[in-house]
Hints:
The chain is an alpha+beta fold. The protein has 5 domains: about 5-165, Beta-Lactamase (2-Layer Sandwich); about 185-305, PAS domain (Beta-Lactamase, 2-Layer Sandwich), CATH 3.30.450.20; about 325-435, PAS domain (Beta-Lactamase, 2-Layer Sandwich); about 445-610, 2-Layer Sandwich (Alpha-Beta Plaits); about 630-860, Alpha-Beta Barrel (TIM Barrel). Helices cover about 45% and strands about 25% of the residues. α2 (about 25-40) runs antiparallel to α5 (about 140-165) and α17 (about 495-510) packs antiparallel against α18. The chain is elongated, with a radius of gyration of 42 Å. The structure holds ligand C2E and calcium ion (CA) (2 copies).
Amino acid sequence: MPHPTLEQERLDALRALRILGSTPEPHLDAVCRIAAELFAVPIVLVLLVDETRIWFKARWGVEGEGIDREGAFCDLTIQGQAGIPLVIPDLLGDPRSADSPLVVGQPRARFYAGVPLALRSGLNLGTFCIMDRTPRPDFGARETRLLGELAVIVEAHLRLHEARVTGETDAARRLMAEGALRQSEQRFRLLAETSTDVIIWSDLDTTRRYVSPAIRTVLGYEPDELVGTKPLDFVHPEDAEAYGLVLDDLTRARIDQASTCQRYRRKDGAWVTMEVSQSLARDPVTNSPTGYVTSLRDITERKAVEDALRLSEERLALALNSGSDGLWDWDVVTGEVKLSDHWASMLAYDRSEIVPDISSWYTLIHPDDVEHSRRTLADHFDGRTAAFECEYRLRAKGGHYIWILARGKVVGRTADGVPLRVVGTHIDITRRKTDEQRIAHLALHDPLTDLPNRTLFWERLTDEIRHATAHATRFAVLTCDLDGFKGINDGFGHPAGDLLLQTVAARLLAVVRNVDTVARLGGDEFAIILSRIRHAHDAGTMATRIIEAVNRPMAFNGHTMSVGASVGIAFGTGDTHDAVALFRQSDAALYQAKAAGKNTYRFHNPSAETARAVPGSLKSEMREAMKRGDFQLLYQPIVELETGTIAGFEALMRWEHPLRGEIAPSEFIPLAEESGLIIPLGAWVLKEACRQAASWPAPLKIAVNVSAIQFQQISMEETVLRALAGSGLPPHRLELEITETILMQKTEAVTRTIRRLRDIGVRIALDDFGTGYSSLSYLHQFDIDTVKIDRSFVVAMTSPRTVTIMRAIVALAKNLGARVTVEGVETRDQLDLVRAEGCTEVQGYFFSPPLPAEGLVRLIATGPSRRAA
Ligand code: C2E
Ligand code: CA
Ligand code: CA
């Protein structure tokens, strides 16, 4: 039984402390955790003993807020002397505790050690105790002492709490300073002495005050030898400056934590690389820094492995590029750049003419490319990219620019990651670039007149609308048809027709301003965008001049030909948003001009516009059509050139409309994409095509078109897997045809989807190559199995320029292990040309149009050779 007066005083003190209902103390929880680890016990408690309850102020390994005081042996502890622990190695074997509910019930404790917690001498408010579920006869004097030391920390907290409660802020500070110091020192030592890392406590002037015993094994010094020394005296001279800066930041409290890596001198004189982490210690009350703790770990071995790795990468880079590429080696610190002979000769310089310095290198980069290259480099320096890779132009000696693909890698960094050295290569990619530019030009221009084609026209029109919206400008769209063109074509022949179109193109260009666009949309149909005009009548004036220009006679083979022109005009303002609607308006106006007797122009007049079927209705019918099963798949054979056999089929969708008849995909796919219906529709195509293909003999493949909208779907991969699983078709017999638009999104998601699909064995074809931006670099960037060259290429193959480009594409594709399929081969001549260029597969009406599934079995059996490929 506790002494009554003392007990009353104790309870008064406890109440005055107002601690029982106070919030949990993370510091005390931490102490519990440390104790649990240090003594390998499952239960640690900070207890406060109230009249009838024992409260858990902090706990580890038990739940709840407290227990009844009745029968708790902690009472024994608080009756002892402050700081003197009570240890009961086996609770069951001790009459004082054998019947305690803590022993016979949960947590079935078998071992107990507790230290009374005193606010002032004699006033034991509670205990700091540990328990185990097995007896601990091994708990000796050392452990008991350590437990006492930890209890000091807990006590310091109680006192601090008291100081806070009684409002004695000054006392709190003082006590805290004392308590915190003792606390941190105690805790610190406990951890430090048991750690295999070297732990050091230093003052803010970096003087070491405490060095843990692990220093003996790690660096060979006695701990006492290093007390009073400073770290920089032991750090390798080359590492000292950078490390000094970090220490400066830390001790001036600009940073609270630092991780670095330095070489330290061991006692035997050898240098060892150490990983160093440091944390600033702050006074818990004033928050001002009091010193810092360092932990040192020997990573010499790990470092050696890393270095070896770096070296081998460096060598690899050199070996890889010892061929025709230019090499460079840049010392980031000094700015010096070492360049190979080939580098200089690539740019036609003599070595002596090049200042071996990074800044002079930058002066050679095309001004438009500087920013991009700097950004790409920064990305690599900052670790956002694994390697530096960038395309830019460099000025050669003659003053012209050549395109370079620069690749490089940081091969040395300081401890805190600042790049020291970069090694890399330069490859001349001028050819590829010009090819790409030519292809891009071809894709956007009409081969006959070299005017922008339909695609570029839409692009320019959309730009113009955007500009008008942003700057409240006005513009006009003119559509222009030649009157009497058909007569000339029929009468004088195609060459005359071609010449006429070229002449008209030149005259139109001569009439308009530089900022305007003249496009040939097809046949004898031209369109003109008059950019940023002031009044509608300006467009009328222009139309008159256009008609006059076209009207002027032209000579052909001693004959004189002449045609007329009809022009329709639609006027655009900042309120115009719909390019298609605007174009329709000018088209309607053109129709009125023609109806008015030709060789004249008309402005768009809304009331005259006839109601016509809007695509909206088709769009709304599509859902029903899908339900009814009006969509159908046709299959067009893909023929392998070398063997003349069928390699597989491309699935092409058709819509069998009950009233309109067959609708081409070029009409309904864009609508399905707009409405989102392409997703279920595309899933159906995949499922149906795979099902069909599974019935064909292996290794016949099925090529399925996938729209960009489908590809953006997260479920895309799953849709493909389902189609494969449902049909039993092996993945390598499925080829997905994707377009450049998909690759241009270049998002992580796209890259990942492509990679995953390829990982499961599905093949990827790049469709319609030559119609978009046709960047050959996509072939490098993505793993593409097949490149499908667009039909427009085959049509244009009469020009030697196109043939050259085709050759480049084939060579590049083959180099990368991709097959080349040419689409839209209609004649034997085309087939021969394509074959000569080394394409692997062809597809086109020459062999077969797309066919219904039923006819395929026979075709597969007989082969396509009936047309004598
Ligand atoms: P594409 O993928 O380039 O398909 C080739 C197109 O060229 C097909 O037109 C085909 O019938 C046509 N073609 C084949 N050989 C010749 C030839 O020798 N001469 C000529 N002039 N044309 C030939 P189709 O079937 O009208 O398809 C047009 C486009 O619609 C396709 O172009 C494709 O982009 C899209 N498409 C078709 N089916 C699907 C589909 O299931 N899903 C998606 N997302 N798109 C599809
Ligand atoms: Ca296709
Ligand atoms: Ca295609």
